[in-house]
Amino acid sequence: MSSNDGDTKLKLLFDWVHSFRLTDEGDLLKMQDEQEGKMLTGIYFVENSSYIKWFNEQGADVHSDENITHYMFVTINDVVDVFSSESPSSSLIEWEADQ
Questions:
Q1: Helices (H) and strands (E) in the chain, counts
Q2: Do 28 and 80 touch, CB atoms closer than 8 A?
Q3: In the predicted model, what is the mean pLDDT of residues 66-77?
């Protein structure tokens, strides 16, 4: 995520990730329709996640008693879903245009 001036970026670091997926926003037509075409960039917490339900089914519910959070990061081009039982640490970093 970046600030309006584009020089400062938010860095998130997860100590543990159970699962993640990266999807091109153009392949999420159903989600775009559900959001009335408004895919707003940002960081979201997903409640009642069908992805977590699927994840638990695939793992024979070995993680179903854990407090796993579904984070969703929406950028201009991609949507990144992350499952973690740990909150990420965050920091702001300066970013030069040539990086």
A1: 2, 6
A2: no
A3: 88
